[in-house]
Amino acid sequence: MKLSKNILYFIPLALLLIADLVLIVLDIRNFYQPFPNPDLYDIETNDSYAEDFQNLKWIIMMMALAIIAVLRQEKKYFTWILVILFLFLEDVFRIHQSLGHFFYNMFGMTTGQRGSKIMELFAAAFLGFIFMAPVFEAYKKGDALFRKHSKAIFILLGLFLFFAIVIDQAHRLAMIQYNWKYNVVFGLLEDGGELIAESLLTGYLIFVALQQKKVEIK
After folding, report:
1. In terms of Cα–Cα distance, which of 60, 22, 14, 39 is closest to 192?
2. Contact predicate 17/199, CB 8 Å
3. What predicted TM-score, i.e. pTM, was given to this entire model?
4. Which of 16, 64, 100, 156 could form a disulfide with 201 if both were Cys (CB 3.0 to 4.6 A apart)?
């Protein structure tokens, strides 16, 4: 009975990962034999089904964190909601690009595209520090359970950022950009990795929220 209940908590994660795999397979199919509206199935484009699914997962994460905060009566989880909210807005509006261009012009840089990309990375790091600072402060003052949850979120979020930043920067290298095979592989690795990492984080937060609900019912 206990095993069956625990399995139920992994059903949302399984559904998320299945949806990710379907989107990745459709992207590969779209590459070799394009659909009538190919951009919808291209996981690298901003107006695709994959992008919409990613945005939905950010919203689910915020809802799960809010449920955990309310049921545990612990306001520190709202610091994580701010981080997820920022990532959601970043996904939609590409805030770091606009801020990077602002820094580029403010510092009077003239190094072209390379300088612009450096400023975008600087802007991303700057925004990350602003939104993560409250989390670090909450972590220092939080109880053991909050720290446990935060460590797991740190790890899974780090995995997402590895694909979103490290693999993305590798994907931008000239030797990859101008080799169509490398370009396709790194594009799929970057965006497919983001999809799966985000699902792992979403599934974990749903799992924690359901566990809190179970405790509340008891």
Report:
1. 22
2. yes
3. 0.90
4. 156
Residue 21, Cβ neighbours under 10 Å: how many?
A: 14
Q: Give the integer Cα–Cα distance in Å for 89 and 55.
A: 9
Q: CA-CA distance, 72 to 131, in Å (whole number)?
A: 22
Question: Cα(89)–Cα(93) distance, rounded to whole angstroms?
Answer: 6
Distances in Å between the Cα of 15 and the Cα atoms of 58, 108, 155, 178 are 16, 49, 21, 36
Burial class (CB in 10 A: 0-12, 13-18, 19+), 68: buried
35-82 pLDDT, tens digit per residue, is 999 999 999 998 899 999 999 999 999 999 999 999 999 999 999 999
Assigned token pair, 4: 């069956």
In the numeric block, which tokens belong to residue 155? 């790890």
